Protein 1
Amino acid sequence: MSDSIILGIESSCDDTSAAIIKGNCILSNIAANQAIHKEYGGVVPELASRAHQQNIIPVVEKSLTKANIQQNAISAIGFTRGPGLLGSLLVGTSFAKSLAMSLNVPLIEVNHLQAHILAHFIADANPMPPQFPFLCLTVSGGHTMIVLVRDYFDMEIIGKTIDDAAGEAFDKIGKIFDLDYPAGPIIDRLAKEGNPDAFTFNKPKMEGYDYSFSGIKTSVLYYIQKEVKKNPDFIKENLNDLCASVQRTIIEILMTKLEKAAKELNIKEVAIAGGVSANSALRKVMEDNHEKLGWNIYIPKFEYTTDNAAMIAMVAQLKFERGEFTDLRTSATAKYDL
C-alpha cells in the first residue's frame, strides 16, 4: 500500500470526525460528540447539522496536529457522501470540497456502509485482515444487514432488516425502560448484572437472511404495560433481567441468520461492523462461534465501531490507489446503496 497521506472526514449523523491515514496506518482519529440529543431521546437533524458546522474546523485542525501533519502534505481528502442525515452530510461534503479545492488535491467520496466494513483493513484493526470472500454483519442504529464481501468494492447485501435496525430496537426498547439515549450501551452494561433467561420475547419468522426488529419492540412494550399495571415498580425491580433478556433475544435474531448464511454459502471468514458491534454479548457470541463453528472471526476495535473518520480514510486510501476520484460537482445523498 502506498504511503500517501489522506484526510478523512465523517459527518453522516451526530459525530463530527476527522482522521489522518498514511498507507493503512491511522495517525489520528478525532471525534466530537453531540450530547444535546440526549435531551430529545434521539438525534435531531437540524441540531446535528448546526453542531457539525461548529465542530468541523476544530476537529480537522486537531487531527492534523495529533498526526503532526501539515496541510500541504495531504495527498487527497476523503469524505462521507452518504448514506445519513442530509443536513449533516452537507456540512462534511461542503467542507471537504472547499479544502480540496484550496489545497488542489483530489477529492474522494466514500460510502459510509462500505467504510464500516473496510475498517477491518486498517493496520491495527485486526492481527490479520479478513480473507475474501467474507461475510460481514453490519449492524448499527440505522442499518442491519448481512453483506457478502467478494473484494474491496464488490459487495452484495444478502439480508437486511425490513423495518427497524437492531440498534434502533435497542434505543426504542431503552425508551420503554426510561433509559437515556443512546440506550444500547446502557442495556449492554445493565445486562451484565441480569439473567438473560428471565423473560421471553417474540422472535420474527423471516424467510431467507432478512431481519425484522419491530416485533420484539412491540412484544416488550405490551409485556411491560401488562406487568406495570400489576406492579408500578416492575421495570425498576427487574431492569437488569429485562435488559439481559432483550439483549439475548436481539443477538439470537442477529446470529441465527448470520450462522445460516455462513453455513449455506460455506464461508468461514465472518466479521461484524457498525455501532452495535461494540456490544459485549455480540462479541462473546462471535468468539464462541470461532470455537463452535470454526469461523475465522474479525471484531473491530471499539474506536472503529461507531461512526469515525478512520474508516472513511481507509476507503479513501483504497480508492486513491485505484485513481477513483470525484469532482466538485458531487453532492451529499441521504441514500447511497452499496
Protein 2
Amino acid sequence: MAHNELIILGIESSCDDTSAAILKNNTILSNLIARQDVHNEYGGVVPELASRAHQQNIIPVVDMAIKKAGIKKEDIDAIAFTKGPGLLGSLIVGTSFAKSFSLAMGIPMIDVNHMVGHVLAHFIDEDGKDKPNFPFLCLTVSGGHTQIVLVKDYLDMEVLGSTIDDAAGEAFDKAAKLLGFPYPGGPLIDKHSKNGNPDAFTFSKPRIEGYNFSFSGLKTSILYFLEKETKKDPEFIVKHRDDLCASIQKTVIDILFDKLIKVSSDLNIKDICIAGGVSANSGLRAELQIQGEKRGWRTFIPKFEFCTDNAAMIAITGKYMFEKGLFADQTVAPMARFSIGSGSV
C-alpha cells in the first residue's frame, strides 16, 4: 500500500443484483448496481437466470465503479466479496471474479458475510450523520432474512432472534400476490398503504416465545380472510385495496416492533438500527421514529441506496476485516447458508 489511504473494491452478488463499489477509508467513491428485470415475469427470482445475468454484468459494473471513483485498478488494496448467505449460483460468480482479480492484481481478498454487511452499512460516512455506539441493536429485515442482532463491536455480533419461517420481506411479497400485485409486491403494498386505514382489518399475530419471529401464520390468516370476503363480494379486494395494504403493513410492523421493544427493554440498549432491503419501507421507518421518540432511543437507518443489497456495505465490512488481517485464500468457497457468528466474523 504505497498511498496512505485504504482503497477497497466491494462485490455483492448474493441474489439478483450485481453491485460493485469503491471505498476509500470510510467514504464511498462509487456504488453501482445492475438490476435484473428478467425475474418479474416469473413472479420471483429464478436462480439459474440470476447467475447468468451476473456473469454478463459483473465486468462492466466493476469497470464503471472504478471509472466513476476516479481511480485506477492498480490503486485498489484489496477486494471484498459476498461469501454468503445467498443463491449459490449467484455467489459463485462474485467469488470467482474476486479470486481472479486478487490473483491478477496481487492483492488480498476478503470474504464477507452479507448480513454483517447490512449491519455495518451504518458506518459508511455520510455528511453530518451520526453513527451508533456499541453495543447497539440492529433489526435486519430483507426478502430472505429477519433478525435482531446485538452488535458489540464491528466484527463481534450475536443474533438474538430470527424468523422461524418466512422473512418479513417474503410476507410482504406473498401478501401482495394474494392481492393481485405483480412481483416484487412489497413496495406496492407500501405505496397503497399510504392512502389506507391501518386499523381497517385485523390479522392474527403469532405468539412466539423469546425474541424469534414467525410470519407464515399471517399469510394464512390473510388468505382465509380474503377467501371469505371475496365469496360475499367478488370485488372486495379492488374496493378495499388501500385499507388491506395498510392493515397488512401495520401487522408486519407490529410483529417486528413487539420483539425489538422487548429486546431493547430487557438489555437496556437505546441505540437502535434498522438495515436490509425492507428498511426502505416507509411504515417501518415512520414506526422507528415514533418508538424512538416515545422510548428515548437514538435511531439509525442507512441511506436508501445502502439499505438494499449493495457492494458499499461489503466494502465497509471488508475494511474492518482488512484492519484485523482477516483474509481469504484461493480455496474459499461461497456458502448459501452462512450465519452471523460463524466463520471469520
